[in-house]
Write a structure and sequence with these properties.
27% of the residues lie in helices and 34% in strands. The protein has a 9-stranded antiparallel β-sheet, with helices on both faces.
């Protein structure tokens, strides 16, 4: 397993797109930290946290299109890129966005995890880099989280999907 280098998680310079909140990678990283990182494995807690004006439940048609299994989808308002939160009934959580720079996403995620005291370790990556598996080791007693990052071309930038669930105990099943 690889641990992302400390130098790679430096804060963005003042005044750039990331610090001003206009970059999709920064917005998606912040969304992940406040939703899936905090509530992986806890669909009820996540849905309670999403009960605010910043999140709109998606229509039944959109939810069916976004989810391949039972759950709920939410649109995130007033953020760069089209952002969504997916809350699966089995405890998996997903965040997605468009207009994402993949390198910036990795750096912003690493910084967000470091700020929360979690180590982000790359476990596996596809040969083209569009699929990455990470282990997020949170401060005790919280269980580690498995993070799956999927990137799809969308013009020059990417569409990114982040899926997370607690690491199951040895011999156990993921939520």
């Amino acid at each position: 397993m690889l641990l992302l280098p400390q130098a790679a998680v430096a804060a963005p310079p003042p005044g750039d797109a990331a610090s001003s909140g206009r970059d999709g990678a920064g917005a998606l990283s912040r969304l992940f930290a406040s939703s899936c990182f905090r509530h992986a494995g806890d669909a009820r807690g996540l849905r309670s946290a999403l009960d605010s004006p910043a999140y709109r439940p998606a229509s039944d048609t959109a939810t069916a299109r976004l989810l391949a299994r039972p759950g709920r989808a939410y649109h995130v308002d007033n953020q760069p890129g089209h952002l969504v939160v997916l809350s699966f009934d089995d405890g998996w959580c997903g965040d997605g966005g468009t207009g994402i720079d993949p390198h910036a996403l990795t750096m912003r995620l690493a910084a967000a995890m470091q700020a929360r005291g979690a180590a982000m370790r790359l476990m596996e990556a596809g040969s083209d880099g569009r699929e990455q598996h990470y282990l997020l080791i949170r401060p005790a007693p919280a269980p580690p989280i498995v993070l799956l990052v999927l990137l799809q071309p969308s013009g020059v930038l990417m569409q990114a999907s982040l899926f997370a669930a607690p690491l199951p105990p040895p011999g156990g099943d993921a939520p």
